[in-house]
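Inputs:
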Amino acid sequence: MSDCILALAGNPNVGKSTIFNALTGMRQHIGNWPGKTVERKEGHVQVSGRTMTLVDLPGTYSLAARSLEEQIARDFIVRSQPKAVINVLDAANLERNLYLTAQLLETGARLILVLNMADVATSRGLVLNPHALSDELGCPAITMAASKGQGLAELRAALQGL
Amino acid sequence: MATATMALPNAPLRYTAPIEAELDYLVASFATMPGLAVYPARWLAIQLLEGDETLLAEAEQLAGPALTEALEASMARLQPHYGDELDVALVDQRYRFVHALAGKSLTRPAVPPLTLSDRIDQVVTHRWLGIPIFLMLMWLVFTLTTEVAGPFVDWVDDVIAGPLSGWATALLSLVGLGETWVEGLVVDGMLAGMGGVLVFVPVLLSLYFALALLEDSGYMARAAFVMDRLMHSLGLHGKSFLPMIVGFGCTVPAIYATRTLDSQRDRILTGLLVPFMSCGARLPVYVLIAAIFFPAQAGMVIFGLYVTGIVVAIGSGMLLRQTVFRGQPAAPFVLELPPYRLPTPRGVWNQMWERTAAFVRKAWTIILGTSVVVWLLLAIPVRGEGSFADAPLEDSAFATLAGGVTPIFAPLGFGSWETSGALMTGFVAKEVVVATLIQTYAVDEEEEAHEATSFGEDVLGIVGGFLAATGDALLAIPGIIGFDLAGDEEEEATPSGLRGAIERGFAASSGGHSALAALAFLVFVLLYTPCMVAVAAARHEFGPRWMWFSIVGQFVIAWLGALIVFQGGKLLGL
């Protein structure tokens, strides 16, 4: 059935559930609200004939297991060792979001960075350079505006390469 | 949008030389401990040096004392470099890495523009204006909900009581079951119970619409921020207010939302307070009772109940902090305020639809089931000479059962078997209170001369009624802000069957203070156990001991609250 497991990780309220719904065609509850997803949810993504299982993890600022949701996210990434972790970042608050990225890198997980809400970042005068990120970290970096459906095709293409 | 492709193999961040040396040492040691193969070795080494106690306990279980020895040896060698602040050094180096990374991948404008979001927040989260704005928005939500949904409620009610009951009766006659107890079960048990609850679908649609707008726009997170200052000054954790706001929709997800809190004690404390936040399922009871006893101020009464719920939650929280949960300082509250976003129609619709669909599902499962049980208990006579399904309701098994607990409610002004019975079944779900009230106060409407109409006429009537309701609802909107386009048509003065029966019931049990008794009843409904599912969630999250603490505590508080309203009101001469 499913040939690999992918995880969606990121800070709270960066659009993980929006991306999850867009990829899986499911309708998980989305809210402009940090902490909507307190349990991990699963769905399936079809990428050029392959079926991948996508797990939406609760949003966390770090991988230190202080609260139950941080522990859920961490245990999943460390113990289940998904094929890749799609790390969703709020492009408008990039630096703070990158702390989790640093910790994810330390787990040795294969990352796909998604700089979501690129439209908001642009409207605040921020200029993103995803190439610099992917050169530094050695993983794909995709700019996205998930609520407008922009960047999803690029993410799917990145999944094809797995 | 652009994709940048891979250039280098994974190049994780490097720490300073002494730390890297110890990481290498630990990774090599871990390799000799087979139990630790489940963890990425370098990650485990970093976490343990950083002082992650949960993980250390887990790893020690797997690897035994060899791990502890290796870790202590590493720590001892790092001591001269970093003293007791190794964890700080690690976090600091990670931040430096992140800062450098952000510097390379992001160019900031010289002067950060003050966004519209910031400007709205200057007003909405203002030190003094914040709470009044929050209360005003809530008031708007509930007024909108009751005013706009009102005409639709009447329409659904007409459809269920008229054509639907007519069709059911006709169908039963066709198969030869007309005028039998089966007709009673279907029309008075199932249709009355379930229908009585389904009537409130428009109210809930409006409520969930308003909540979806507030949540998706980002305002709800501000409400938590605004309330934090108040909660903090009372010694409560501000983060607790987030699950509490979720509780406006439904208590069950709110109990699960306590998982966002850092300590188990904060989680339990918040889990105990969440049920006081008035959930959507309680709204039908408010609307029914308020429409009967306070037709002119229904919106105000309902708003008052919601505020009472918040006040009781905060008060109970303070009390618990100083007793059961003594001696834990409230941690500082850090909440990221999401930017304001224009709610998307699809997002709002999904939320409305999901929550309302859950309500409808509940109507034909739990509520239908309970209605049938109540109908059966009402049909079985245990006194007098009536036979099955043909005896005065006061002689039924249900009345006898409920009559047993009426003394508990007598001091609160609603010690009748009908209300006691409704509160008993209300433990299952709050909507059931409405269903049971309708069933127990059922008056023989003297075969309301349902004129023989054809199917086509019925359908036309339903559609026409819907259009009229839409018109009325639109006319009601300006009324909320003070204009009354609909013209002050007084509600029909002659109380309809159910309305009159409930009015008489409350008047009899309260010694004439029926409005006070109705208010006390609403306060009781607000404060006691929300539903079986919430109880199950509390048990799942906090264990049976806290579940019982919660059930008993809520019952006592509900009883006291209702007592204060009823007896206090009487003392004041209301």
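The beta strands of chain B are 3-4, 106-107. Flag for discussion at group meeting.
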